[in-house]
Amino acid sequence: MDVKLFSGRNSKYLAEKIADHYGELLGKCKINQFSDGEMQPIIEESIRGSYVFFIQSTIPPADNLMELLLLVDGAKRASAGYITVVIPYFGYARQDRKDKPRVPISAKLIANMLVAAGADRLVTMDLHADQIQGFFDIPVDHLQSDAIYKQYLKGRDLSNAIFASPDVGGVKRARKYAKMFNKQLVICDKEREVANKVKKIIVIGDVKDKDVYLIDDLVDTAGTLCKAAQALKDKGAKSVNALCTHAVLSGNAYENVRNSQLEKLIVTDTIPLKEKVEKIEVLSCAKLFSRAIRNTHEFKSIAALFVND
User: Is 227 a catalytic residue?
Assistant: First the structure.
């Protein structure tokens, strides 16, 4: 089957890079927008029997998700042979369980919507919770940013490095990096007053005179991350850098990062930055996704793209 790559409006900046690495041009489509806000995606070339990939992160506003759903439905009705949704950042992934009465499991609802629209496969990266893969009744290729950050870290002096998790929930993620480079692990235990507001952070482990790398899947308001950086510096850390895959960066996040003890916040381009901040460095995930698309189409291993050496 022919391969056709398409993009929603929000992720075109990344889709173009993915297509360039893949060696194809993005397919032609346009989104009509009516005066009341309704969208009508139009795929402007034949996709009958084709292997179709739609690239779109489902970041706010919800229009991005709706746009993706409509594109998938349009492709299904146009007799596409196989439809894969490539969602570099899977929104609503933090709502993966009922942590209080009378709340939705939003990640499961999004999964149901994508399958109902006609998606045959999902390719994504660094889900907030691995178990979200089980919400889908279609194959899910869960890429890991390790493949990107490992190469980045190999180019740095890690002789004095130590890895840290900004909260207890991220220990598994940080431990993987510690094992990868045979380094120690420390944990920042946070106590919240309310959602998105941290009361205090306690550092578990010795970081004196160490170059600390905080590891997380996403950075939202950057409140936890910046407080963790401050707590680590207060405990004697020589430097603090952070590796966070998805740059959600909402609210006062950019100001928080700018005024923090972080030397660098290294993110990927799954989400476009709204501001340019000297402390924020962006690594592209386009090559990883292009290779995943090729391996999917050619029925080759996806795990081979990120399995640690």
Answer: no
Exposure string (b/e) for 21-52, b if CB count within 10 Å is 16 or more? bbebebbebeeeeeeeeebebebeeebeebbb
Contact 293, 86 (CB under 8 A): yes
**279-306, pLDDT tens digit by residue?**
999 999 999 999 999 999 999 999 888 7
CATH number, domain of 127, equals 3.40.50.2020
Q: Do 50 and 158 fall into the same domain?
A: no
Same domain flag for 150 and 133: no
**Claim to verify: residue 157 and residue 251 sit in the same structural domain:** yes
Instruction: Compute the distance between CA of residue 226 and CA of residue 211 in angstroms, rounded to an integer.
Output: 16
Quote the pTM value: 0.93
Domain that includes residue 108, residue range? 3-144+287-305
Among residues 4, 190, 210, 227, which one is catalytic? Answer: 190
Of 118, 111, 39, which Cα lies nearest the Cα of 77? 118
